[in-house]
Amino acid sequence: MHAKILIADDHEIVREGIGKLLARMRPEWEICGQASDGDQALESIQALKPDVVVLDITMPKMSGLEVATQVAALKLGCRVLMFTMHESDRLANDVREVGAQGFVLKSQAARDLVRAIDCLLAGGTFFGSVQSPMKPTVVA
Amino acid sequence: MHGSAVQSVISPTAHPVYAQAPHIVQLYDDDTFLVEVLSQFVGDILAANGAALVIATPAHRKQLDTKLSARGLDPVNAALQGRYLMLDADETLGRFMGDGAVDETRFNDIIERILGKICCTANGEELPVAVFGEMVALLWAEGKMEEALHVEQLWNHLGKTHPFSLLCAYPISGFSSETHIEPFLKLCREHSDVAPSEHYLVLNSDDARLRAVAQLEQRAQVLERNMVSRQSDEQFRLLVDTVQDYAIFMLDPEGKISSWNVGAGRIHGYKSEEILGKHFSCFYPQEDVERGKPQKQLAQASQEGRVEDEGWRVRRDGSWFWANVVITAIRDSSGKLLGFAKITRDVTERMRAQQALHKEIAERRETQRQLHNSERSLRQLSLHLLRTQDEERRHIGRDLHDTLGQSLAVLKMKLESLAFGAQQDEAIGDLADCIRLTEDSIKEVRTVSYLLYPPMLEEMGLKSAIPWYLDGFSTRSGIETKFEGHPEFGRLPRESELALFRVLQESLTNVHRHSGSRTACIRLLIKDGMGTLEIEDKGKGIPKEILEQSGQDWTAAPRVGLRGMNERMQQLGGKFELISEKLGTTVRAMVPVQSRSAK
After folding, report:
1. FRET pair for B82, CA 20 to 30 Å: which of A16, A19, A130, B139?
2. pLDDT tens-digit series, residues B189-232
3. Is B26:B167 a contact under the CB 8 Å cutoff?
């Protein structure tokens, strides 16, 4: 099934990694564009109208959470998958609050990313992948 | 009138103790009276065919001759008969005086020889003898009172072996001074009778005499009192004179020095003869003299009764000393200014000690000020260090998270992707090891970077970062945490959020390490217009001594943690409070909600 995917992350290595992973796992999907900051991400969403945007939270100019808020506010019809290094149960709540439909940890990309996009394309959400052992263990 | 009075007291023939060689002293005011008395004394003895020896001044001798002749006596004939002899008092005195003192032997020799001549007639008949002597009066007049008394004693001694009647006379003016009182009393004791002067004798009634005696007694008492007072004055003068540590002297109303004591000499360096009569302004520095200070001080003392001053004064040798001076106006009972008493003390050493003390105090203040400044600089430096540290941590944290973290995440993704398509068992095993290693590295980087600086804080604010941090804290410490975030609590300036976050970290560390509490409640609220973070535990509280040591001055708090928290808040224009009780501790950190650039 053809789908247009936009990748927004300020790290090129991450964009490239995701691109290759998706191309390998789902060759039928089209990476319609890439953005390296929040502003660019929002513009590309408006211009390219992707089905799903894989949105990093930590980005220059505008954070992924703000972009998600805008997407929801502007009713751009694009499904938003937050893709982050941050690992917190609570983050899932924040992500839901800003109107995003899914949440994948970068460290679990190989396992979860394709599944999550699948879910979103099918009209569902994806919030279930956070693992507690990944929390910091240094004594306070 | 004189005659009858004299008769009753003086006459050698009428005197009741004549037989016992009376020794009478006649006091007189006027020569005429004396000559009257004398003519009676001598005249009576000559008229009774007795012998008379008169040792008198030339004037008295001459007047006596005239008087005796007037009485119808013949002194020349009596002299020719060898029973009347007149000698010059001064000349006779000169014959037995040696080195200003009476020579006893010579006196006895001379007088005995003379008496021998006149008391026996040619046929060996012993005559009654009357002697009048004025040598004592001459000695007295010369101030040789002791010598006069000595001569009186010698006459008394002679009187024991030669039965003569002796009359001495002293002008009453010789006892005018109070210094004569004591010798006068002694003089009286050397005589059998004291004949008062003519003023007393003219009183012709008993009443008048009694009154006169009473007056005399009164006068005697006054004199006695004066003597006592004079003695104490003298003692006082001696006291003042010998005081060494104070210059005590008198000034006349114009300011000229009229008395000088030992202390004044010691302090000012002048001898009494050098300074008496000089104006006291010579003790003042030239500058003070030019400004009229001495005169002003006298005027003030005169007006107010007393003036006290401390200042430089000049010694005779030109050296200066720091003086404490009191000038007191002296007035008589009518209020007339008699002069001034001036007391000066050299207090240079005290002044120098005071100066040294003042200097030391000033130096200590300066040291304190410098210390205060150093402390302030130190605080500023420590704040700067805190900020730099925060910045550096943030930088490292972000670098780890953003660069290394991302790379590791992509590495893992690729390894997993490779593992997905791997065919050989060996390769699958190696790839699984690589993936695990990468996962561990990601975990490590994440932990370190999050503790250094939580990236979520910057992106999502305190309300999101705190719950995340609490999750980790609870896992690590086993302390149950509860978070309450006020709906209106929004984003704060980055620096404020970071500062509050550090307070949270520090406080939770204290809760974990020291409080013994099993729970902690964290609140974010708006209080008095300030963004407020509260961390409350149910532990044992902070030990009293630590709280007492620190008081509310957190800069002095012994725990750097508390101190650092306080300073972070101060720097942001916020507040830091610590309420510690038996039932637990509440830490409250507040920052202004409005953005405010940190100083």
Report:
1. B139
2. 888 888 888 777 677 777 777 777 777 778 878 888 888 888 77
3. yes
Per DSSP, which regions of B493-543 are E strands?
Answer: 519-527, 530-537
What is the rounded CA–CA span in Å between residue A93 and residue A116? 17
Q: Does the CB of A27 have a partner CB in chain B at under 8 Å? A: no
Q: What does the alpha-carbon distance between residue B474 and residue B512 come to, in Å, rounded to a whole number?
A: 10
- The residues of chain B scoring below 50 in pLDDT are 1-9, 14-19, 551-558, 595-599
What is the architecture of the domain spanning B243-346? 2-Layer Sandwich (3.30)
Considering only the beta carbons, identify the residue of A17, A87, A133 that sits closest to B414.
Answer: A17
Q: Which of A89, A107, A136 sits opposite B409 (nearest CB)?
A: A107
Q: Is the dihedral of CA A128, A133, A134, A137 positive or negative?
A: positive
CATH 3.20.20.70 corresponds to the domain B459-592: no
Q: What domain count does chain A have?
A: 1
Report how far residue B556's alpha carbon sits from residue B544's, in angstroms, rounded to the nearest whole number.
Answer: 15
Residue A140 resides in a domain: no
Contact status of B48 with chain A (Cβ, < 8 Å): no
- Complex ipTM, two decimals? 0.80
CATH, residue A77: 3.40.50.2300
From the list A17, A94, A140, the residue facing B460 with the nearest CB is A94
The nearest alpha carbon in chain B to A108 belongs to: B413
pTM above 0.95, yes or no: no
Which site among B439, B468, B513, B535 would you substitute to test the A interface, given the most A Cβ atoms closer than 10 Å to its Cβ?
B468
What is the domain extent for residue A129?
Answer: 3-134
- Please list every residue in chain B whose beta carbon sits closer than 8 Å to the beta carbon of residue A89: 471
Cβ–Cβ contact A122 with B under 8 A: no
Task: For chain B, say whether A63 makes contact (Cβ under 8 Å).
Answer: yes
One CATH from 3.40.50.300, 3.40.47.10, 2.40.30.10, 3.40.50.150 for B2-202 = 3.40.50.300
Q: Contact at 8 Å (CB) between A40 and A55? A: no
User: What are the pLDDT digits (tens) for A98-119?
Assistant: 888 998 988 888 888 898 999 8
Spatial contact of B164 and B51, defined as CB atoms under 8 Å apart = no
CA distance A137 to chain B (A): 6
User: Where in B291-359 does DSSP place strands (E)?
Assistant: 306-314, 320-331, 337-346
